[in-house]
Design goal:
With 427 residues, the chain is mostly helical. It has helices at residues 2-12, 16-34, 44-60, 65-80, 83-105, 115-135, 145-152, 166-175, 182-205, 214-218, 221-235, 237-253, 271-275, 280-286, 289-300, 309-324, 328-347, 351-357, 362-386, 389-398, 402-426.
Length: 427
Amino acid sequence: MEFLVAPIADYLQAAPEGIRLVLGLVACQLLSLLSRTPLFASGRSSKYLLSGLLVGYMVYGVSCLYHALSALTCYILFSLLPVGGAATLNSIFQICYLAVGYYFNNMTEDYAINWTTSQSLLTLKLTGLGFDLWDGKDVKHLPSLKELLGYTFFPGTYLVGPLDDYPRHKQYMEVGGEQPPLSLGIKRCCHGIGYLLCFLVSTSLFPTSYLFTPEFRAISLPLRVGFITVWGHCALYKYLGVWCIAESSCMHMGYTGSGEGKWEGLRNVATTAFHSAIKLQDVIDSWNINTSRWCGKHIYKRCKFLNSKSLSQLVTMLYLSLWHGLHLGYLTTFLQEFGYMLVERGMYKNTALQHISTYIPRPVGVAIGWLYTKVFLSFALVGFELYHYDTIVYVYNQVYWVCPVLAALVAIWNVADAAGKRKSKEI
C-alpha cells in the first residue's frame, strides 16, 4: 500500500493518512461496481463483510480491529443484560470509547485521520441500534454476531458514511436493492471529485496560515470578514466531496433506494438547498442530513423529560460537540450554532424586523439572507477548523467578534420586543 501512498502524498503535499482514505473510497467504488455483477448474486453478506475488512485494513491497518471490538462489546451487552440496561450501557460505552480514542489519537494541531474517523460513524450506528432494540419497533431481535459485523464493515458506509440504520441494512442483505442507472452514481461521484478539487484549489487561494499574517491584519475589516466567510465555506468542500463519493458507492449497490424509483434515501447533503440557503435553519436542514435525523430520533426526542425544546437542543448540541472531538473548537462551534439559532427564531417573531422586511424587495431580502447565512456559518466554523482556544480567540479578535456581538444585540432586541408584546396583552 505504501508504494502507492508515498509518491501521491509527496506529489500533492498531502498527509499519507488522507491519501489512504481516498484510496479506500476508490476501492469502495470498485467494489460497488463489482456488486452489480453476478459475482455478488449469492453469499452477499459474507462477501461484503470480507470486502469491508479488507478496505479497513488497507486504510487503518490492524487498527480496524478497534471497530470490531466496539461491535463485539455491543453484542455482548445485549446478549447478557436486559434490553433497557444494555441500551443504556451501550450508549455510554460507545461515546466514551470514541472519546478515549480521540484523547490518545486526535489531540493534535491538525485534524487527524485514523481509526476514530470511521469509529465516529460506528458510534452512532451501534448506539442507534441499541435504542432501536430497546424501543422494539424498528428492530425487534438482536442480530447475530456475523450480521452485526456485516453492518459494521459494510463497505458502502464503513469509512465516512453515509449513516445508515440497521433496518435498511437488514432488508438489503435479505432481498437486495433495486439498482439505479449507472449514470446516477457516476454523476454523484463526479460531484464529489469536483468538490475535492475545489477544496484543493481553495486551500492555495485562501490558506489558513493567512489568518495569522501581518497582511491579514492590514486589510480592512470588511475584507477580513469576507476572507473568513470564503475560507470557512470552502473548508466544507472536503466533507461534501467525500460524502458525495461515498454516497455514489451506495447508489451503485442499490443501497440508497427511497421508493418510487428514487435513490436519495441516504443523501447527506441537499447541495442546491445548502448553497442557496438564506437562513441558518436552511443550512441545518440541508447539511449532514442523516446525522441530524439520527440526533432528532435518539437524542432530542429522548430529552422530553426536560420539558424544554431549548434545553433538549442544547443537550443535542453538547452531544454532537463531544462526538466530533475533544478540542474546544468543536464546543465553540456548536454553542454558537445553538445561540445563533435562538436569535434567528426570535428574529422571525420580532415585530419591528417583520415590519421592516415588508419594505425590502424580495431579491434584495434574499441576497441579504444569503450573505448573512454565509458570514455567520463561516464565523462559527472557525472553531471547527482551528480547534484550539488561542488560535480561535486570535482570529475572532481580528474581526472584533462581529458575529457574536451582532447576535447579542439582536437577542436583546428580540427580548425587548417579546416583553413589549406581553405588556400590551396585559393592558
